[in-house]
Amino acid sequence: MECLLGLLKVKVVRGLNLAICDPLSHSSDPYVVIHLGQQKVKSSIKYKTINPEWNEELTLSITNMMLPVKIDVFDHDTFTKDDSMGDAEFCILDFVEVAKKDLNGLPDGTVMKTLHPDKDNCLAAESHIKWKDGKVTQDIFLKLRNTETGELVLHLEWVSIPGITH
Predict the structure, then answer these.
(1) CA 166 – CA 3 distance, rounded (Å)
(2) Domain C2: where (predicted)?
(3) What b-and-e string marks burial along 48-66, b requiring 16 or more CB atoms within 10 Å of the CB?
(4) Helix, strand or coil, per DSSP, at residue 98
(5) Residue 69 lies in a domain
(6) Average pLDDT of the residues of the chain
(7) Does residue 1 sit within a domain?
């Protein structure tokens, strides 16, 4: 059995300028699927929008911080296979390494690490891993791949498991 490091709360905040998959209504019916290893969690469907507001929290168990978090955005279709609206992925290694440190006593809002967009990640903007309200958090803007347009806004929060030390 793999060792549980902690839980990663992924708040799917919103999508921006997603692809139009339903040309008649000039919109889409998007939802998000997040994969980490064998785990798969899914958001609700937001109907008739290319700028959906989810504000939904999905939780992943972290046992291997080397695995990337993979995200797929789909357009829900009633009678046919759902259309892909793009995908993205991000690495949680830096996030988990910061979360494993003893940060108690640090000033609220301390930036622990800054990540920059580059060819190896899907970041659309600079992202900061912060110590905020007694938690390790990160806001991420992801540029979707394999599509012409679209970004996702996520908020990450680490949940330590009492009794587990690393």
Answers:
(1) 10
(2) 1-108
(3) eebebebebebebebbebe
(4) helix
(5) yes
(6) 94
(7) no
- Report the CATH number that the domain containing residue 29 is assigned in CATH: 2.60.40.150
* Band (156; pLDDT cuts 50, 70, 90): very high
Structure tokens at 137: 């958090």
Phi, psi of 68 (to 5 degrees): -80, 155
Token digits of residue 6: 């902690």
- Give the model's confidence band at 35: pLDDT under 50 very low, under 70 low, under 90 confident, else very high: very high
104, two tokens: 């108690």
The token pair that represents 40 in the structure block: 């798969």
Report the pLDDT averaged over residues 63-75. Answer: 96
Specify the higher pLDDT residue, 105 or 142.
142
Rounded CA separation 60/35 (Å): 9
Q: Which letter, b or e, does each residue of 103-123 get, where b requires 16 or more Cβ atoms within 10 Å of its Cβ? A: eeeeeeeeebeebeeeeebbb
Domain that holds residue 65: 6-159
